[in-house]
Design goal:
By secondary structure, the chain is an alpha+beta fold. The chain has 5 helices and 9 strands. It is globular. It starts with a strand and ends with a helix.
Length: 216
């Protein structure tokens, strides 16, 4: 039987406040508490991963803030990304050692779970070798960036349900110049955040359990 996972639904919350929830949950899981799955929707925000390059930011931090976006440096891997209303953001706080899941396998779990959710809504999704995230034929639909500290994960994934896709034009999303970004709405699916969150909870938990059983 896989370890339990507590689900925290935060609603709409600023990235910095959400980070405080993440770090508190991380400390609890490190100390032996059950894994957590934090679900949140952020106001318009740009986060910079450890691999962000100057060319990934056509605008300065000041210019982005003047357009109403918050800008934060994140400790996750990957480059720059946008978060905003209409996007489901999931932060699984998972003890990989306890589950017997390797770091690379964990990233694959998040990709597989996201693709599974999209399939449930009738969207054909796929993973591109050598890249992190999930795509449809219309473009990249989910970004993934994680960090592991003391064997426990931080950060996670962002799935575009119906965000303002024009906001992605303000940066080079995930450092992939010229790559289109899409959403479930653009792919022709009408749904709401609650149903997507519920599907994501199920897929993340099942995919993690399977990865642990396989010793990935």
């Amino acid at each position: 039987m896989s370890p339990p996972m507590d689900v925290l639904r935060l609603g709409r919350m600023g990235w910095d406040a959400g980070w405080e929830v993440q770090t508190a949950a991380h400390a609890a899981v490190v100390a032996g508490a059950a894994d957590r799955l934090i679900l949140v929707e952020h106001p318009p925000t740009i986060t910079l991963g450890r691999s962000t390059r100057p060319e990934d930011l056509p605008l300065t931090d000041e210019e982005l803030r003047a357009r109403g976006l918050s800008v934060f440096q994140a400790s996750r891997g990957g480059s720059v990304t946008y978060h905003g209303p209409g996007q489901v953001v999931a932060y699984p706080i998972v003890n990989l050692r306890r589950r017997g899941v390797a770091m690379r396998a964990y990233v694959e779990v998040l990709e597989e779970a996201t693709a599974g959710v999209l399939g449930e809504f009738g969207i054909e999704a796929y993973i591109r070798p050598g890249l992190t995230g999930v795509w449809t034929h219309g473009g990249k639909i989910a970004a993934i960036g994680v960090q592991v500290s003391r064997g426990v994960t931080l950060h996670g994934l962002a799935l575009n349900v119906e965000p303002d896709l024009a906001a992605f034009d303000l940066v080079v999303p995930c450092g992939l110049a010229g790559e289109p970004v899409t959403s479930m709405a653009r792919e022709g699916v009408e749904t709401d955040m609650v149903h997507v969150e519920e599907a994501l909870v199920g897929w993340v938990q099942r995919s993690l359990a399977q990865a642990g059983c396989l010793g990935r």
